[in-house]
Amino acid sequence: MTPLHTAQLAAGFRTDQRGGVLVLVALLFPILTGLSAVAIDYASLVKRRAELQRAADSGSIAGVNQFKLANADDAAALRTAKAMALAQARSGSAAPPAVTAEVLNNHSGVRLTLTEQVALSFGKLLNTPSLEVSVTSTAKLAGTTRLCLLALDRQAMGAFHLESAARITATDCSLYSNSANPEGIQGENAAVATALSTCSAGGYSGSGANFTPPPATGCPALRDPLIDRQGPTPGSCVSLGFFVDPKKFVDGIDDPTYGVNVVSGIVTLQPGTYCGGLHLTKGATVTLQPGIYILKDGPLVVDKGASLSGVNTGFYFTGVRGGLLFDEKSVVSLTAPKDGLLAGLLFFEDRNATIPATLPPPLSGKGKPKPAPGGFVALREYRIISDNARTLLGTIYLPLGRLIIDSKKPVADQSAYTVIIARTINLYDGPNLMLNARYGSTDVPVPAGVGPSSADTQLTQ
Predict the structure, then answer these.
(1) pTM
(2) Residue 113, SS3 per DSSP
(3) Local structure of 307: helix, strand or coil
(4) Which helix (H) or strand (E) segment is 57 a member of?
(5) For residue 204, what are the β-bridge partners?
(6) Do the beta carbons of residue 39 and residue 62 sit within 8 Å?
(7) CA-CA distance, 347 to 335, in Å (whole number)?
(8) Kind of pairing, strands 98-104 and 109-119?
(9) 80-83, Cβ contacts within 8 angstroms, sequence gap of 24 or more
(10) Would you say residue 20 has pLDDT above 50?
(11) Distance of alpha carbon 438 from alpha carbon 417, whole angstroms
(12) How many C-beta neighbours within 10 Å does residue 239 have?
């Protein structure tokens, strides 16, 4: 073979090779195009799914946070969750995703699901014009929700104690004891506590009939939610004068241990500092003007058929003596201030008191209260034995005191809401203490940390 023939043969081979490559490319082109389309669509799906997940998370969080607000209800939470999710998921070209939402566990969680048909850019090539993408998000309130009762003592037996036929009803809020004692919560005999939840940092004693639902145990102790609230500064002492006590010498001489400032007539009192305490007695009818009433070095006592009423009034107990007694035949109707230093606080005990003070026994047949479980002795006692104390709207904050409720009729049942935070809380006899949670039906605010705003929000999935 001549060199010329060899060159011609090599040239022909190269031409055939180029043609083979073109044929191979032509055969692989649809596959390469399909893979590119899949890659593009996959990236689009991943991006859109992430967008929908963020929208669902925003919606579930916004929904469950509604339960921290005073006017919260299930419908409002669901509306908010859906609106937030749809706003966050908005896409310029796509139809809005389908959204469903539900409330979980008695106002403690919201689950939201977004579902969308995502169009595929090259889906028609693969006979799949769109794919369904679905995401779910659940947000919950972590910790005690809608807290309406907290016993602060970390060690006392029966820090929250019920016995005899005592009842406490708090169906829309939670009861909590910080006591690590194995019997930090006690329910004895026919006592009944019905609540959204009950939680003990330690344990509890009592049968299943005493608590509905049964208390959870081993719960973390809660920080005093009002520890940073400051009380008012006492001013000059109020002088009531002689005429507010026209029955001074009727039915026995007034005993100053029940309060130096004695009222037995029909009187309207002004806010101020009542040095030595305040004693309403012998059928007195007392109306309080709105404001803050400071009880310095003495108790607040209402007994012998006296009545006490006030709207937007707060009581601050300070000094070397103190305490409260609403006796059996007294009539009490009080609502806390809606603004100012004691906004939302009906009773506020000075947490800096150090000297024990014994509340005098009532002049009725009740006598002294039963000793506290385990021999616990509080610095102050605040005792409600009135059978007509049906409006106690606001927060009762007694960080050093023992709250004793020992009446036979419902207590606080006509209040829009009542929150109790005390060192220990004891219920005797046959009261039905009603801790309502109708926060939206009053203009009296709920202090931060209790009521509807007492939980943190967490995404759980």
Answers:
(1) 0.73
(2) strand
(3) strand
(4) helix 3-65
(5) 185
(6) no
(7) 10
(8) antiparallel
(9) 81/110, 81/112, 82/112, 83/59
(10) yes
(11) 6
(12) 9
